[in-house]
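Board notes (copied after class):
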Amino acid sequence: MNSFEKYGKMLSLEPYADRREIPVFPHMLTAEAPIAGYTQAEVYDDLNKWLDSIDKTVKAIGTYDVSCSVGPRDTVFIEGLKSRRPGHELDENACFQFVETPDFDDPDTEYPRIMQMGWDAWYAEHLMKIQHPPMTDPNQLGARFGEFVANATRGAQFVVERGMVPWFDNAYIPIFDGLWLIRSMEEFVMDLYDDPGQIMDIINTYQPQQDEKNIAMMKQANMTRAANFAMRSSATFLSPEMFEEYAWPALRDTINRYAAAGITTIVHADGNWLPMLPYFLELPRGCCHFELDGATDIQAAYDILCGHHSIRGDVPATMLAFGSADEVSEYCEKLVTMGMKGGFMLSSGCEVPTNVKPENLKAFINFLK
């Protein structure tokens, strides 16, 4: 089976007849740079060097089935957070950093302003403020989005030409999670406590519009997989009761809209999602794929979701950086034994660290060959 056939079988939830049918995804955005001999600043500022780092890593370590296809600079842009960049605000070999500080101080003024402006206009204003340097003309932001689309298209073609599946076709952050990140942790939680109605009005008004617009664009481009970065909706940040009241209704409706359009939602499930996973059994079978980072007990998650949704995970970053190749192989064996009933992809627990030992990465990537 080629990588695309493996990926399709994983999404179909069919049991595996042979462990070599399980796809392998080392989530690498920054880890390839040192393997390829580049600094983080070089691969951040130059898409050509980032793509070359993929080629050099494959040559040095081995090929894999799924790959990131959006480079570091474009990833930072589309996340929509203030940032520090390697070779600029940081050392040239440092990873980029997101800076979470409150974007506004007065929720009683700003939330009504979002409602009045509309989410698109307000979010564009936010994006312009946080660029390096800040943008003063909306045409600048339009040009940057155009550059992003061109780079993402090129990255996807690059990955496909090498026989690998791009991580996703399109990605978005739900308004609930995006607004939380922009407002910042403590401030947003207090806003939910003080007056959740303002926040829920924004989500209930504008999330359906965002979904329909994104779905229409994806359908036009024949895209079938959308990554949902619901990064603040896990039990790491919310109690199950708060999740059910504030996050789940819009998240459920969003995933259902995508499913009705034939689009699989890839839930980037950083943090502990275990108490939230039973809710997803309400959704159509096979409409979700969960990316677990190790904070969620993967065996328990698989027991809950097996036969209904697929998952990937979760070789720990600490093991890849500080463990041995034998430890990596032993951990992979446990995951593969668990996942033979279907709907499982062998993957890293979120991103492979930049200080990964090459022998550990090789043991991971080549485990199923």
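Comment from the instructor: The longest strand covers residues 264-269. The first helix runs from residue 3 to 12.
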